[in-house]
Amino acid sequence: MNDDKAAVLSRLARAVASSGSGDPLAVRLCRACVDIAHAAGGAITFGYASDDRMTVCTTGEVAARLEDLAEVLGEGPGWDAYRSGQVVSGDVQDERWPVFGASARREIGMVYLDALPMRPGGQLMGVLTLHRRSGRSGAGAFDVEMAQFVADAVGAALLREPGWGDDKGPVGPWAARSRVHQATGMVVAQLGIGVEDAMALLRAHAFAHAASLDDIAAQILSRRLNFSITDTTTRNEEP
User: Fold this and answer.
1) Same domain membership, residue 106 and residue 213
2) Do 176 and 153 share a domain, yes or no?
3) Domain assignment of residue 121, given as a range
4) Which terminus of the chain has fewer CB atoms gathered within 10 Å of its CB, N or C?
5) 29 and 138, same domain (yes or no)
6) Are both 25 and 129 inside the same structural domain?
7) pLDDT confidence of 141, banded at 50, 70, 90?
8) What is residue 91's predicted lDDT score, i.e. its pLDDT?
9) Co-location of 126 and 218 in the same domain
10) Do 23 and 134 fall into the same domain?
């Protein structure tokens, strides 16, 4: 399973890097998840059931409309995923969401949805929703456990350390670690991405392996971890 997770993280990193830096990180991560899961589109919404609910990205008009319907009607797989903290899957004929389903069928047609709660470190922060016109449950290419892992990794990548990148420069415990900054620079060089994106990938990798950022930084600096390698995320290299 750890090898499978490493492979998924490697695909996620490559997908983010290949999409360029013109769009916000959340958009590129969402597109990467859509690609990895062989879905038609997706959306990321923070604070799903709160007054501060905000859809931070959608990959197209269908995903945007599905999020709008869920917000307005107060039902759908995203709501169930947020309330339960579990992956929820179903199509728009599912009797659990009669009003949402009827509206979606009328406006969009038949779609299948996977709603994945993002809960890095046990903190529920939002929902990643993927949709497809047909296909199996479990986010397409993944079983439920792997789908949850991907959602949690994306959530970890989107968590922002207070003060990072503001006018005062990086602050907090991560900023004090020179190895992390050096490793971030190496990831920037490996993938040709920005500093913020590189830090996000380090955070996601640390979360996935239950490691500290210092541990991941040490692996990068010792060349045991290289995000630019296409077949795996780690390898041993001669100095």
Assistant:
1) no
2) no
3) 2-158
4) C
5) yes
6) yes
7) low
8) 93
9) no
10) yes
| CA–CA separation, 29 and 43 (whole Å) | 10
pLDDT of residue 208: 81
Per-residue pLDDT tens over the stretch 77-112: 999 999 999 999 999 999 999 999 999 999 999 999
Stronger pLDDT, 14 or 71, i.e. the higher one: 71
199 and 106 in one domain? Answer: no
pLDDT for 160-207, tens place per residue?
644 333 444 444 333 335 788 889 999 999 888 888 888 888 888 888
> Among 116, 135, 158, which residue terminates a domain?
158
